[in-house]
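[job 4471] stage=fold_predict status=RUNNING
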Amino acid sequence: MAAALTISAVAAVGAAAPAAATPSVYTVTGTVFHDADRDGVLSLGDLPLPKATVELYGSAEDAAAHTGALRSVTTNALGVYSATGLPAGTYFATASADGYRSGAAAQTTVHGLSLVGVADLPAIRQTDLTVTVFADSNGNGVRDAGESALNGKTVILIDVLATQKAIADGSLAAIDVGSAVAGALGGSLDLGDAIRFRTTANGQPITFTDVPEGAYVVMRSPFNLTIGELLANTSRVTALIDLIGSGSADALLAMDPALLDTGDLSTTPRNDYLTKLASGLSRAVAAVDAADTERLLGADASAQLGAVTGTVAQAAGLLAGIPATHFAVVDHWGTSYQLTDLTARKTTDFLFGVRQHVSIAGTVFNDANANGKKDGLETAESVTLTAYRADGTVLGSTRTPSLIGSYKLGGLPYDTDIYLGLSGTAKTPSVRFTGEVPPALADVTLVGSYRLSGTDTADSVTQDIGLAALTAPTATAGAVSASGTATLTLTNTMSAVVSVGYRVNGGASTASTVPAKPLIGSAGTRTVTLTGLVPGENTVTIDWSAGVYDGGTVTLSVVR
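[job 4471] inference complete, writing structure tokens
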């Protein structure tokens, strides 16, 4: 429900306050009415407003400030009010009614034999529009069960006719954007009466309050208004004003893409959204004719809304080609309709489903025991992570902070093979990449590959990365005895236990382990006995692993 609004009457300059000494025999009366045709005159088709509060003031200044009311009365069921027992003078009337704003001014004077003064008060209906921005996990444009509201997403409400006027008289271009942005709180910003910015918060819908009748564009902003980025917000809003006024997206397209990254597939600078916005939005705003709008919102609106025509239809068609954009009207009775698809649907709630880009996130840590899991005392590690296409094209890159080690790579595409590469460290991933390595990435240390379908609900991948200083154990064979045996000493300089399987001349494998390097000492060792050595050269093969890391094979030659 729209908030209570004030309808104020304006007096002639220099009017005198009522004389207190005259007999109190005068009456001020009138009707508070919904001015459906907006002509300021009570006529057929205008509906009276019952239970409206009317206040009388002795000066225009008091009426404007709503201070020092001389009398307060309430309209009856027919919208009529009557204030009796007044002294002679000029009175200034205001009215308050839920969901209405001032449509005209009224004043009246009573004196001498003019015992009754009439002051009718016209009002124009207003309504509240809500906007819900939600995580559209499956990209179907419908808010399904479990799809939550998103915070930090900016939406713009453009009053088409008010914006036309602001462009024509130069007031839009003259706005001091820096001052407006500096005074904006919580991602809310008003550019005169023409354009309003609001940003989602606390999991709640946005509410545009007290929206008067008219034609509106409701759109996801190509950027999110961020708290604390005054200069960035100023330049972005200025560039958007230029786009609306001139149809040029050059200023926006020239910006750092990071300043325009909304996290929404529909409004990212990596597709043609800004180009479509530039070609469609300004033309749509310019196309709407006031007379066409008046006919649509007037008494015959119900007959027209099923098949929108004229310049309103032209604007709706232009806006239909722009992603994340709705076209709406609020009629004389405060009823709102969505016209996005050139047919009318009654609604006060406008939905924007946000399909997030693919993201890869996780933690990079020192995996001292090479078990592939971050244990209590294992610290974070700073590395560079890069996402690639199979042809080597870089999709994104980030450096993990050394104290935290967490990372997130966003803005990645669906239906694409994505490879995650590691650099900036001499350590080895404790979990080896076992997938096929594209030729273009042969020199890249890969830690994972992923492909997310655009029709699935998943839009993120978790990839934790353990790093260890992994080196193969060294193997040394002693002299061969007359019985064909020899000692094999395995040395491990790592902090993780090494598992080995050794065999002679391709025979059966014998399993063993090599202790980790002790706290005091340079290495852990294990000595085993080789048997079955034949005269001549013998090949000893040692397969080793540390935790989840498959280390490969060490080969040793022993001569008997």
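[job 4471] summary: The first helix runs from residue 60 to 65.
[job 4471] exit 0
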